[in-house]
Write a structure and sequence with these properties.
It contains 12 helices and 17 strands. Helix content is 41%, strand content 25%. The chain has 496 residues and is of the alpha+beta class. Helix 10 runs antiparallel to helix 11. The longest helix has 41 residues. Strand 14 and strand 15 form a beta hairpin.
């Protein structure tokens, strides 16, 4: 009988060049419990690599600290042979905990790195079939060449293995891990749910980042400070491939991670795509930030291959540039978050307001009639629709140059804002008018006066006024004729 954990492929996630082939499966395991956890984990890992103290600490504790923030835990199971391995896999899957198995590329026959690369790699285990003695793994390094140009991320494709094959892979990998990765030796990892997460969404994630890390020094600054020591160390190796591997790790840590972070910033602030001004500022800085890191790491890689040491003044210059860009990053995020909250406050305040015009009784000095059955009635300016000028607007007659439109709000209302929507056709926009208020329809007080209007929509905010009757008194209806054309009037205030 097949026992399976259903999880997303995460084809819209990230690639190994942005993170690494161990932490992406860890993110996938987190994403099983909640889809967004995949993105939360990759972001928090990127932050840890750039500003966190845990990056060089205990491997298990550092990953566990990330998962704990998501209401999850990294569970470690001791296994000493193939039988215990398979038993632990079944137990965890039965408990709805995806398994993360760390192996060595050298022993993964289904990948192109088989027998050529000696390095850690992880994959997920999400299904088993005891009757057929099969295990299903999720591997994001399969078909990389195929998915590169058609998918954003590296999907976790399914691959079915026999239990014996999986046990053999584990056994061979485990022998090598004893020497180089003791924290993985005789270990199987799984991700379990333990409680509620600290974050309710991407916005909270980014706010926590800004608050917690803006005064910390970047680990990239430290890496630049140690550059000459690295050159001396690499010179002793005299191995271009080893140097390439070292800088690939550095590129993922400081360049690929930046791509992830900016992607999460955009997820947290989705309105950026529709706000031309902020979008251009954000995109320009994002490109500058990421390009700088790419060029810095590429230059360091080239200098290392040439055994070229970096002058002290150049080190100080690069460190200052890193520091300055980080300062600009946190400053920009602070401004974007402030704008976001301001807009949200305005939105929620507006949602609490009431449009008193929607319930008003409306009259006018005249109404234009196409025929006896089709009249551009005054009442149509408060119907909330702007689909058809015949049925959704008021047009006066054309006999006189002065017209008025009167709204009876049915009782005295405290008013904060008026919105008037005029004809959108050039030459027919209302030119001159006064907005007036009254308690008795006899004495009128001026609320606003407009001359030579060119706007299709005019907004008049008040410090607070109180009237039952509102009159739009039009003295210059349009450039082209004497007809007044009003598509909608809104009268906004806070309900009592």
């Amino acid at each position: 009988m097949l026992v399976a954990l259903e999880m997303d492929y995460f084809s819209e996630g990230y690639r190994t060049m942005h993170s690494n082939c161990v932490d992406l499966p860890m993110a996938g395991a987190a994403g099983f419990h909640q889809y967004e956890n995949y993105f939360y984990y990759t972001f928090l890992y990127a932050v840890m690599m750039n500003w966190g103290e845990a990056a060089d600490g205990d491997w298990v504790d550092s990953r566990r600290s990330i998962l704990n923030k998501l209401g999850l835990n990294l569970k470690v199971t001791e296994v000493s042979d193939g039988a215990e391995l398979l038993s632990a896999i079944r137990m965890n899957i039965d408990r709805q905990c995806p398994v993360v198995m760390i192996a060595n590329y050298k022993h993964l026959f289904f990948l192109t790195q088989y027998e050529t690369v000696i390095d850690d790699h992880a994959f997920l285990i999400t299904e088993y079939d005891s009757a057929r003695r099969l295990v299903v793994i999720r591997e994001n390094q399969l078909n990389k060449e195929v998915t590169l140009n058609v998918m954003k991320g590296e999907p976790f494709f399914k691959l079915q293995l026999t239990e014996d094959l999986l046990a053999d892979i584990w056994s061979q990998s485990n022998a090598s891990l004893k020497e180089i990765r003791e924290y993985c030796y005789n270990k199987l990892f799984s991700v379990e749910r333990t409680g509620p997460p600290e974050y309710g969404g991407y916005l909270e994630l980014v706010e926590d980042f800004v608050e917690g890390y803006q005064n910390r020094s970047s680990r990239l600054i430290e890496a630049v400070a140690r550059f000459n020591d690295r050159v001396s160390l690499m010179a002793g190796l005299n191995d271009a491939n080893a140097i390439a591997v070292e800088f690939e790790v550095m590129r993922r840590s400081y360049h690929g991670s930046a791509i992830i972070m900016f992607d999460i910033f955009e997820k947290a602030l989705p309105w950026l795509s529709a706000h031309e001004g902020w979008r251009e500022i954000f995109a320009g800085f994002r490109d500058q930030y990421i390009k700088f890191r790419y060029q810095l790491i590429s230059g360091c890689h080239a200098d290392t291959l040439r055994r070229k040491r970096m002058p002290p003044d150049r080190i100080l210059q690069l460190q200052e540039e890193i520091r300055q860009l980080d300062t600009e990053l946190f400053s920009l995020l602070g401004k974007l978050l402030a704008h976001h909250h301001k807009e949200q406050e305005s939105y929620h305040a507006a949602q609490a307001w009431m449009n008193y015009a929607a319930c008003a009784e409306v009259s006018a000095d005249s109404e234009y009639s196409l025929d006896p059955q089709t009249v551009c009635q005054a009442s149509q300016v408060v119907n909330g629709r702007r689909e058809n000028w015949v049925t959704d607007s008021w047009h006066s007659d054309t006999d006189q140059p002065v017209h008025w439109l009167l709204l009876d709000l049915r009782e005295r209302r405290d008013i904060l804002k008026f919105v008037i929507r005029h004809s959108p056709a050039p030459g027919y926009i209302t030119m001159d008018y006064e907005l007036q208020g009254s308690h008795d329809k006899e004495q009128w007080e001026q609320i606003a006066a407009v001359r030579n209007n060119e706007s299709v929509v005019t907004v008049h905010e008040t410090d607070g006024c109180s009237f039952r009757y509102i009159r739009l008194y039009i003295t210059y209806p349009a450039q082209n004729d004497f007809q007044a054309r009003i598509y909608e009037i809104e009268v906004w205030g806070l309900p009592v």
